[in-house]
């Protein structure tokens, strides 16, 4: 029996980073897929806390909110720093990734046709802090000397944005190297090349 169960839509969406973390840590995941049609009927939505997905189950523990799930799994599998200070810095990094993800989500679901050009033009301004942080990192990760859940989250978001703006990382050599390094991790590489993962759309509205 798989130790973890994820209930979510058949997209990468907000669970790409989670799946990468679990794969990298060699953890099994059972998936329950919910179609958009099922969800719109309202029965499932009404029965879930906050009326949203993903839903994550770890034994008797049931979690909602994608970043809370990432933190929980990171905490359990050595991807949340080595001490309280590192954990706080990882939280800060993940919040910064979330800020950028919110901009991406707004574009995809609200402004795709009218805002794509402006988004791609502005995106480098939001990548500069990550380039700066990584250029000073001896380990090549955001915080400390080991990969954290914030790294998986940033990596996932960079892959999404590269689909949107193909030359995105050309002006950010350290960030480009970072993305390439994480992509080359054996378990991550295997997941990215897995047909069942590759065929999932990034978003739920047909954009990417």
TrEMBL record:
Q: What is its EC number?
A: 2.5.1.18
Residue ranges of domain GST C-terminal in the record = 83-202
* Pfam families noted in UniProt: GST_C_3, GST_N
Q: Does the keyword Mitochondrion apply?
A: yes
Where in this chain does the record put each GST N-terminal domain? 2-81
Report TM segments. Answer: none
Any one GO cellular component localisation term in the record: nucleus
Please describe what this protein does: Conjugation of reduced glutathione to a wide number of exogenous and endogenous hydrophobic electrophiles.
Q: What does the sequence similarity comment in the record state about its family?
A: Belongs to the GST superfamily. Pi family.
* Protein name (record): Glutathione S-transferase
Organism (species): Carassius auratus
Q: Which gene encodes it?
A: LOC113114480
């Amino acid at each position: 029996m798989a130790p973890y169960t994820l209930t979510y839509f058949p997209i990468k969406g907000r669970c790409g980073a989670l799946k990468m973390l679990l794969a990298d840590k060699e953890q099994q995941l059972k998936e329950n897929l919910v179609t958009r049609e099922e969800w719109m009927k309202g029965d499932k939505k009404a029965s879930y806390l906050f009326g949203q997905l993903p839903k994550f189950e770890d034994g008797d523990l049931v979690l909602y909110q994608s970043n809370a799930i990432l933190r929980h799994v990171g905490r359990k599998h050595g991807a949340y720093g080595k001490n309280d200070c590192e954990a706080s810095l990882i939280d800060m990094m993940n919040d910064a990734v979330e800020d950028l993800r919110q901009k991406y989500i707004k574009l995809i679901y609200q402004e795709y046709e009218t805002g794509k050009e402006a988004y791609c033009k502005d995106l480098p301004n939001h990548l500069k802090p990550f380039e700066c942080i990584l250029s000073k990192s001896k380990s090549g990760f955001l915080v400390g000397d080991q990969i954290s859940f914030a790294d998986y989250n940033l990596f996932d978001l960079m892959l999404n944005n590269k689909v949107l703006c193909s030359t995105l990382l050309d002006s950010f050599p350290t960030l480009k190297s970072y993305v390439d390094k994480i992509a080359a991790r054996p378990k991550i590489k295997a997941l990215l090349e897995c047909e069942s993962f590759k065929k999932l759309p990034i978003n739920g509205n047909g954009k990417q």
